[in-house]
Amino acid sequence: MGIIVGIDLGTTNSAVACLRRGKVQIVQIDGKNTVPSVVALRNDEIIVGQQAKSRLLIDPKNSVASSKREIGKDVHYNLGGKIFTPEDVAVNILKTIKMKASEALGEEVEEAVVTVPAYFTSEQRQITKSAAERAGLKVLRLMPEPTAAALDYGIDQNKNQTLMVYDLGGGTFDISIMQVKGNNFEILAVDGDSRLGGDDFDQVICNLLYKQINKDLNISITLEKERKYISAVTKVKEAAEKAKIDLSDMDEVEVILPNLIDDYCLEKTITRNEFNELSKPLIDRTIEKMNMAMKSINYTEDDIDRVILVGGSTKMPIIRESVKNRIKEPYMAPNVDEVVARGAALMATSLATPDYQKKSGIDLLKKIVVKEKTVFTYGIDLLDRYNKLVFTPIIKKGSMLPALDGVIGATSRPYQERVLLNVFRGDNPVPNENEYLGELVLDINKPMQQEIPILALFEIDENMIIRFRSVQLPISQEYAELIGSNDIKRLKAYLDMGRLKATEVIIDAKENGR
């Protein structure tokens, strides 16, 4: 029997944890509790982690960092002539975690709960799951990062409470409100921004440093193509990250980069107040997401028992102060960089067999139950009675997972040979104002003059991965009754039994753009 772990696949750093002797423990990779989520090419060899991060300074063109922000987008990286997608980068990170965790534990890591941002789309989740499987892992479940953090915090609290998890990582921001009752965690509201994180706060300092360099040298350093300028930009980014971290403990920092470009030395003093002021628009975006999450369930700050800060970026004092001013004094775990992996390990063990749980030294009298909700609305375009295409929601935002629903329509003209259904994500009644996900073409068997009924069926599993099917319904008394009563569950059962033959759409995030 192999080892089951929880993996936090982070934008900046990743972590892995497991249960042993009844306690959650972080599995060290290369002697550290976290591993940089960086991949690089060195002498035609792929390297991952701290070594790869070091390569960023000397060979940025053949190094990739923060690729998690690009998952689901048509982005490619050229490393020494080899083309990598964000999924490929994730595969290499997860392979390294699996291999080195197995070495550290003395047993093969085989299964995992892998965490994802709560605001990840279904395609981004599917890509993450695929990356883990390509890395040789059996994925027990994909789990939202804030939920995993709440699990680590709340599993031993023995009281009912409403938690808000403020999760500001390296590249993404999530806000989750959940009801905790014993081992039951029910997600009430989710919001977030998949392109807001610590990298953006680093960029605030980078911009200050770029401005100084451009003024001193009369150049635009980020537009220069020579290797020395590209290398200098990488050094500035590293210095900016360090300055941000130092400003959590100091009132001001002095950035000194000797011989940054030829014999040019950069010297710049940055105060915490200056950084806080320039970071305010970013922080305001997180507060607005908090407000939106509470508004969606008609909650106020008085309904929140505790706010939990998660993610390395929450170490900035301005974050704690802003959350305190809006809601209340937040709780900050001593291990904010590890709490997500720890919670994922708890969930992974909960999903394991009783024998494995016993081996891990834990006796879960009550299984951990996590009830999640969809964070987006999904639907298709259909003709209304005025023969106008409108967006028809099928599974609405906030539906409990797993979710199942459908809509019954019909052909729009006599002897129609095929039906085209476009799949969208969003809430706008105008289809093209929503995010286009893909299309399904249903060929009509034996076209006829009369309308032919068609079922469009959406299923979203507990990992928030979509399955969309469409099927031509027979014209018979039995099906007329099912159509009349809109019995979607019975029709779905007939599909699963093989009594109906469906066409299924494969929604590929890389093909979403129109």
TrEMBL record:
Q: Which CDD domains match?
A: ASKHA_NBD_HSP70_DnaK_HscA_HscC
Entry GO MF terms: ATP binding; ATP-dependent protein folding chaperone
Q: Known InterPro entries for this protein?
A: ATPase_NBD, Heat_shock_70_CS, HSP70_peptide-bd_sf, Hsp_70_fam
What is the protein name given in its UniProt record?
Answer: Chaperone protein DnaK
Alphabetically ordered keywords of this record:
ATP-binding, Chaperone, Nucleotide-binding, Phosphoprotein, Stress response
Tell me the SUPFAM superfamilies matching this sequence. Answer: Actin-like ATPase domain (SSF53067), Heat shock protein 70kD (HSP70), peptide-binding domain (SSF100920)
The record describes the protein's role as: Acts as a chaperone.
Task: Name the family the entry cites.
Answer: Belongs to the heat shock protein 70 family.
Q: A Pfam family name for this chain?
A: HSP70
